[in-house]
Amino acid sequence: MEYIFEREPQQFHVRNHQGHLPIHIVMQNVDTIVGSHAHVNELWTFVLGEYPESAGIADNRGRLALEVAIENGLECIDELVGAEPRAVETRSMINYMYPFEQAALALATHGIHGQLPRDYVETEALTIIYKLLRMAPHVARNAMREPWVDTPEYKEYLANQLKMAQIDLLSKLQMAQIDARNEELKKRFKRV
Asked: How many CB atoms lie within 10 A of CB 178?
């Protein structure tokens, strides 16, 4: 693979039909590309070193390389966040979770069902969650908030809801005033 990229460096920028760059492919196909975990580390180190900007480019599903690495239990968190610091603060486009939440979910789903070795669950997975929280502790506070709360569209929606409530209230007030005036007029007509 290194030979191909040395001869054709533009291949680092080429996406496949799923929008995957080489960094996504290496992170996603850990078991099928190579046999040893050490060789995977060499491979992603090489790819990231040649095209560090790829850590900040999402695939067609909106996943950054950090999200793919977390899903596959890779230990390259520091390097990916070093190449793209905003990744640790970026919610997934799929489930709106922050990376530390994705790591906890991966730990819970793979660890509980025995898909990950016990020593990995007890050390590496928890270390990944800890690292992610240490890199961006403020995301833990925002994790329980819905991601759309701070968007301009949601703020506009709330402003429109408030306007509609005000209009509704004013209209009810005006209707009450009109009804009260009509009641006065009815009483006058009955006297005449």
From this structure: 10
